[in-house]
Design goal:
The chain is α/β, with parallel strands linked by helices. The protein contains twelve helices and eleven strands. Strands 1, 2, 3, 4, 5, 6, 7, 8, 9, 10 and 11 form an eleven-stranded parallel sheet that branches. β4 (64-65), α3 and β5 (89-94) form a beta-alpha-beta unit. α5 (113-129) packs parallel to α6 and α7 packs across α8. The longest helix is centred in the last third of the chain and has 23 residues, at 253-275. Residues 139-158 are annotated as: Disordered.
Length: 336
């Protein structure tokens, strides 16, 4: 099981420690470093900055949002950064949810998410393979555009720039069972949002007949500390926000996932409190048990014991949201 560093997205401003953490991770032998985006900083610019200050560590987006760019624009970002970094780019994509897609990007959330994802990936693959002009008679991502408001003179094109690698790894952030199953067929890897090494049965039906080399790369908060309860607070804050606020009361993919993992009553309670403006109570309503099983928190000996559980399952890459160099160092030592 390889280790990666997940830096996430910026909060109110640039995160001053991100570059130091990325260079430390490379020095410690971490395989990859990952950036993200929500509705503030983008994923590709910070990753390019990191690429300029490193030489070996792989560079991934976890995740870049599909609604933010057309698939050809996303492919241009990926092939450009792959060239600049000497072939270190890994493209992680996600559909996001209706509130973000329609509220931030001003676009309709696709009526068939599976079809929209499949078409998006198809176009990106065509660009990167550069076998001919990009052409797709699609429902959401037709190339050329065939809408009634178009001119009708769109021309199929292939990228002027030859991609460095035609097989640049493409991973998807998927949460629903059908989406996960499709991911195993059309992508090179899967970026789970929550992963519990003691509840792998939640995903078992979607992960049959995995292709050789398929990546399963979940994120997990890691923190070496003496007080487990205190160390879990940032995890609970994240869960409270995602489960309570990253989606509508009637359509929240994160809450649905928590419910499938055995915490349905707790997930609905978190939603109820968060949407009522009682955000602190929503965070406190996150069960310590759930926050703990998807994280690596506590003294070194406790983390070592729990890390063994992650190694025994199908996870190929563990992406750590580790806030300090000491934690990065301990995890590197324990996983060696």
């Amino acid at each position: 099981m390889r280790l990666g560093l997940a830096l996430g997205y910026w909060g109110r401003g640039p995160a001053p420690a991100h570059l130091d953490l990325a260079t430390e991770a490379e020095n410690l032998g971490y395989h990859s470093v990952w950036t993200a985006e929500a509705w503030g900083s983008d994923a590709f610019t910070p990753l390019t900055w990191i690429a300029a200050h490193t030489s070996r560590i792989r560079l991934g987006t976890a995740i870049a949002q599909m609604a933010a760019r057309t698939p050809t624009a996303t492919a241009m970002h990926a092939l450009t950064l792959d060239h600049l970094s000497g072939g270190r780019m890994m493209l992680g994509l996600g559909l996001s949810g209706p509130q973000v897609v329609e509220g931030w990007y001003g676009r309709p959330f696709p009526s068939s998410p599976l079809t929209a994802t499949r078409e998006y990936v198809d176009v990106v693959r065509q660009v990167l393979r550069r076998e001919g002009p990009v052409a797709l008679d699609g429902r959401f991502h037709s190339h050329p555009y065939r809408g009634e408001d178009g001119t009708g003179i769109g021309k199929p094109l292939k990228p002027i720039t030859h991609p460095l690698r035609t097989d640049l790894p493409l991973l998807l952030g998927a949460e629903g069972p059908k989406n996960i199953a499709q991911t195993t067929r059309i992508a090179d890897g899967w970026l789970p949002l929550y992963w519990s090494p003691t509840r792998t049965d939640v995903y078992q039906a979607s992960l049959t007949d995995l292709p050789e080399g398929f990546m399963i790369a979940p994120m997990a908060r890691a923190k070496v500390c003496d007080d487990v309860a205190e160390g879990l607070l940032p995890v609970k804050a994240m869960l409270g926000f995602y489960i309570g606020g990253m989606g509508h009361a009637a359509r929240n993919f994160h809450a649905d996932l928590m419910a499938r993992m055995g915490y349905e009553e707790e997930a609905r309670r978190i939603q109820e409190l968060f949407l009522a403006g009682r955000k602190e109570e929503a965070v406190l309503a996150v069960p310590d048990e759930f926050a703990d099983e998807i994280s690596l928190i506590g003294p070194r000996e406790r983390i070592a014991e729990r890390l063994d559980l992650w190694r025994k399952g199908p996870v190929t890459d563990l992406l750590l949201t580790a806030p300090d160099p000491h934690t990065l160092r301990v995890l590197a030592e324990l996983n060696s």
